[in-house]
Design brief:
The complex is a heterodimer.
Chain A: E1 4-17, E2 23-38, E3 43-48, H1 54-61, E4 69-74, E5 77-78, H2 84-90, E6 94-97, H3 111-121, H4 128-141, H5 158-170, E7 176-180, H6 188-205, E8 208-213, H7 216-222, E9 225-230, E10 233-239, H8 240-245, H9 250-257, H10 264-269, E11 311-312, E12 318-319, H11 324-329, H12 345-357, H13 374-377, H14 380-396, H15 403-426
Parallel strand pairs in A: 3-8, 3-9, 6-7, 7-8
Antiparallel strand pairs in A: 1-2, 1-4, 4-5, 9-10, 10-12, 11-12
Helix pairs in contact in A: 3-4, 3-5, 4-5, 5-6, 6-15, 12-15
Chain B: H1 2-15, H2 20-23, H3 26-38, H4 41-63, H5 102-141, H6 143-162, H7 165-176, H8 180-207, H9 210-217, H10 222-233, H11 236-258, H12 271-278, H13 287-314
Helix pairs in contact in B: 1-6, 1-8, 3-13, 4-5, 4-13, 5-6, 5-8, 5-11, 5-13, 6-8, 7-8, 8-11, 9-10, 11-12, 11-13, 12-13
Classes of the chains: A alpha/beta, B mainly alpha.
The complex binds adenosine-5'-triphosphate, iron/sulfur cluster and magnesium ion.
Chain lengths: ~425, ~325
């Protein structure tokens, strides 16, 4: 049995109107039926575009949001139905690291107070002296000086603040930590350090992680299993390597096609998939397959009427699409134009989609067309990286996870993201 | 209805100032505001006026050259015949209709006026803050029932806000009868809905902050979160409002005294009462009204200037 199991979790926010008596006029279907399980000691990476409900799902696990329906079974106990005082006790074992490091620290509390508050609430440590010792211990573990205790959040840098956030979770000795975009607010150079810290802590303390990100590059490295979310639901879930080797859901394919490959030759042949239109509103999600308004392979049958369940297609690779096998076999063709531009990161996908939908002519540029080569110009360096990485991989075995490695990857991704955006703006004129 | 929206809007905008603590943090927020205020003419003028007023209020009764009630020059003044005594070396502000030294009365009256202003403001602040905390706590952490409590309280304060404040104060004073306490209560009650709405709005803004969620996530109890996390971070706009309220409280207290609802005891001069007494002789001796009137206007101006300067200094949109 898994340590944490979500069973068809739904979080619907009521939309209210009215002056004297609030009437519910509709719902935002932020999370709409997510089932997943996380094994002890593993890392589950949850990826998806902004607004798809990742944060809401993460918060639902800790019951920081009301859960509309479904179960959150942690170590055999269904948290969704727990009375609030019992839930409070469980919070010690389930902790969260927040997206905004500064916003999640009370500006008027010093670090000692921030860190000891939770301990006191759970009766950890006899007195403040004992708690202080423990806090010093943890501060050392997360790489903060012990004189940080009497200082205030604004006196620290972004990376240090996130370390404080991590320390706040650690002092309670949790089993599971939910990291909600733990590095997206940080400088690229610091991102790798924090990711590495999370990884080290997992090894030394045997932690289980749910890591949320909108950027595939961030979760790729540390996740055992990755789930891809679209508009409140999971569309694909697979062991990390399998997902990267062979994404099967059209949405994942589109996301992946946006990630540049370090090898320039592969990069040239890479098929790019452009998503059409905007992310639909979670207050009014499309019927049938949530993705059918933007799916390049959308079919006339089923797609708009039946919601595809998340089914195992073998080896734990789960996909929610009616036509997985057909798309793979090539018997079902792309129905909407694709292969326009290299795009990086979900945000760029969205940005481009908006641009196209704003009425500019949609040009079909073959994958290897001249302006396409732009990302390949960054690559003198990317090439070197690739070689270096290969060497490193040989040396340290399959899992090359040293600091520089992650750092480069993220840095590259960002570099090229800006490159891709520039090109995206230029291309329709070409 | 426009009165309602104007007042309420103004309060809500002030409440949103707490958000600024996200941009610039806690202690440094006020330090930064203070730095900005030091270069603001408005703040400096306001502070100087308030400083002078408070100084006069404190030392006034001791430095007053004559007793405020001593009718030393009774024989020189004949109000019935229109015979008054104006400024002169012995009596800087002249004499009043009973032959008392106006300057001494003015000095002693300053303390009384400050007292009325501060006490009225405190009544409004304390009761309003309690109501606001209750409402804000119910709204942020009380679930469905809490939200209903909050709605009821807020509709009630909206109704109070929609009444013209002086009318409300006069009605309360009329019920309670003529006395200094009456004035303070009446003026204070008018301030209650302002502070309540302000603090509640400010708490709602803070209640949605990530650090509150984080406190909940580490297992701190609701009540503790409200008291130790949300409340301390919600107070900046209340401090601004308290300063602005001193100005309105002083004016409204004076107005009530002027209408004859103030302290009936002539032994204790107060600017509002002095103004009311001067009214009868305005045709012959307008200066008798001018001294207390100018005192009231200038002090109210001082508090308004300082309050507005604070509001500006705290506003993240204006912060450079
Ligand atoms: N308290 C709330 N009330 C109403 N709607 C909400 C609430 N919280 C979130 N939503 C909506 O639910 C949807 C999902 O939000 P969520 O924050 O979970 O997205 P996300 O995937 O974390 O996005 P991001 O990458 O921007 O953090 C959004 O459309 C958001 O507007
Ligand atoms: S079910 Fe249809 S619309 Fe949905 S992903 Fe599959 S092909 Fe596309
Ligand atoms: Mg989020």
């Amino acid at each position: 049995m898994s340590l944490l199991e979500l069973d068809d979790v739904k979080v619907h926010f009521p939309v209210k109107k009215g002056l004297f008596f609030d009437r519910t006029v509709g719902h935002v279907y932020a999370v709409d039926g997510v089932s997943l399980s996380i094994e002890a000691g593993q890392t589950y990476g949850l990826v998806g575009e902004s607004g798809c409900g990742k944060t809401t799902l993460g918060r639902a696990v800790l019951r920081l949001n009301d859960i509309t329906d479904g179960g959150v079974v942690f170590d055999g106990t269904d948290l969704a139905k727990l009375p609030s005082e019992e839930m409070r006790a469980f919070r010690r074992r389930l902790q969260m690291v927040f997206q905004d490091p500064l916003g999640s620290l009370n500006p008027r509390q010093n670090i000692e107070s921030i860190l000891s508050e939770g301990m006191a609430a759970h009766g950890i440590g006899k007195d403040q002296t004992e708690r202080r010792e423990k806090i010093k211990d943890i501060l050392a573990k997360v790489g903060l000086p012990s004189n940080a205790l009497s200082r205030y959040p604004h006196e620290f840098s972004g990376g240090q603040r996130q370390r404080i956030g991590i320390a706040r979770a650690l002092v309670l000795e949790p089993d599971v930590i939910i990291c909600d975009e733990p590095v997206s607010a940080l400088d690229v150079s610091v991102q790798a350090q924090v990711i590495n810290l999370l990884e080290e802590l997992q090894e030394s303390l045997g932690l289980t992680y749910l890591v949320i990100a909108h950027d595939l590059a961030v979760v790729r490295h540390i996740s055992d299993v990755i789930g891809v979310m679209y508009l409140g639901g999971l569309v694909e879930e697979a062991p990390s390597d399998a997902l990267y080797a062979k994404p099967r859901h059209p949405y994942t394919k589109a996301l992946m096609s946006a990630v540049p490959v370090p090898d320039p030759e592969v990069e040239d042949r890479r098929e790019r998939i452009l998503l059409h239109g905007d992310l639909p509103s979670p207050a009014n999600p499309p019927a049938g397959c949530r993705f059918h308004t933007r799916c390049p392979w959308v079919q006339e049958t089923k797609c708009a009427t039946e919601r595809p369940p998340l089914l195992d297609t073998g080896d734990g690779h789960k996909v929610a699409c009616h036509f997985t096998a057909e798309i793979e076999a090539g018997t079902v063709k792309q129905t909407l134009a694709t292969g326009i531009e290299a795009v990086t990161g979900t945000e760029t996908v969205a940005a481009e989609a908006v641009e196209v939908s704003e009425g500019e002519t949609e040009t079909e540029v073959p994958a290897a067309d001249a302006p396409e080569k732009a990302p390949v110009t960054v690559p003198a360096q990317a090439d070197a990286d690739a070689k270096e990485k290969a060497a490193a991989a040989e040396e340290t075995g399959a899992k090359a996870s040293d600091a520089t490695d992650v750092e480069k990857e993220t840095a590259d991704a960002t570099d090229e993201a800006s490159g891709a955006t520039e090109k995206a703006e230029g291309s329709p004129k070409a | 209805m426009t009165i309602l929206t104007n007042k309420a809007d103004k309060i809500d905008r002030l409440a949103e100032l707490t958000q600024s603590s996200e941009a610039v943090t806690g202690t440094s927020l006020w330090r930064e505001a203070f730095r900005r205020m030091r270069s603001s003419k408005m703040a400096i003028i306001g502070a100087v006026i308030i400083g002078a007023f408070v100084l006069v209020a404190i030392i006034g009764p001791w430095v007053a050259p004559h007793g405020p009630t001593a009718q030393n020059w009774r024989s020189e003044v004949f109000p019935n015949q229109g015979k008054f005594v104006g400024m002169r070396g012995e009596n800087w502000f002249g004499l009043d209709h009973l032959g008392r030294d106006m300057f001494s009365r003015w000095l002693v009256g300053a303390r009384q006026t400050l007292l009325v202003g501060v006490v009225s403001m405190l009544i409004g602040l304390i009761v309003g803050a309690l109501v606001g905390v209750l409402s804000g706590a119910a709204a942020t952490l009380g679930g469905k029932a809490g939200q209903r409590v909050d709605t009821v309280i807020m509709r009630f304060t909206d109704i109070m806000l929609s009444l013209p404040s002086l009318l409300l104060a006069v009605s309360i004073a009329a019920v309670l009868g003529q006395s200094l306490t009456t004035v303070m209560i009446a003026v204070g009650v008018v301030q209650i809905p302002i502070f309540a709405r302000l603090l509640r709005g400010s708490m709602l803004v803070q209640g949605g902050a990530d650090y509150v969620l984080a406190a909940k996530a580490v297992g701190i109890r609701r009540k503790r979160i409200v008291l130790t996390q949300i409340l301390p971070n919600s107070l900046s706009p209340v401090i601004v409002q308290a300063t602005l309220s001193l100005a309105t409280a002083i004016i409204e207290a004076a107005a009530l005294s002027y209408l004859g609802l103030g302290n009936p005891d002539p032994a204790i001069p107060e600017w509002g009462v002095m103004l009311s007494q001067a009214q009868r002789f305005f045709d012959n001796e307008p200066m008798m009204a001018a001294y207390p009137a100018v005192g009231i206007i200038i002090t109210a101006l001082g508090f308004t200037l300082l309050g507005e300067a604070m509001r500006e200094a705290l506003d993240p949109k204006l912060r450079g």
